[in-house]
Amino acid sequence: MDLCELIRILREASTAEAIDKHKEEITELIPKAKIMPDFNQQNHAHQYDLWEHCLQTVVG
Fold first, then answer.
1. Contact in structure between 14 and 20 (CB atoms under 8 Å)
2. Is residue 40 exposed (0-12), middle (13-18) or buried (19+ Cβ within 10 Å)?
3. pLDDT: which is higher, 7 or 40
4. Is 22 helix (H, G, I), strand (E, B) or coil?
5. Which of 19, 21, 27, 36 has the fewest beta carbons closer than 10 A?
6. CA-to-CA dists, residue 46 to 11, 39, 41, 43, 55, angstroms
7. Domain-wise residue ranges, the chain
8. Does pTM top 0.90 for this prediction?
9. How far apart are the first and last CA of the chain?
C-alpha cells in the first residue's frame, strides 16, 4: 500500500469495517499506528480503543 491507496480507501469507506480490513497494511505504511489497536484511552468519555475511535471519526 502507498499513500495514494490509503487516501482512496479512506475517501471511499462508508463503514469502519471497510477501513479495518486494511489495518495490517495501514500500520505497515504508518508504523506509529501499530499502538492504536487495543490502546485504552483511559477515559470514561471514550467507548472505543484508539484505533476504533479513529475509524469511527473518519467514517463520521
1. no
2. exposed
3. 7
4. coil
5. 21
6. 24, 11, 7, 6, 13
7. 3-59
8. no
9. 23
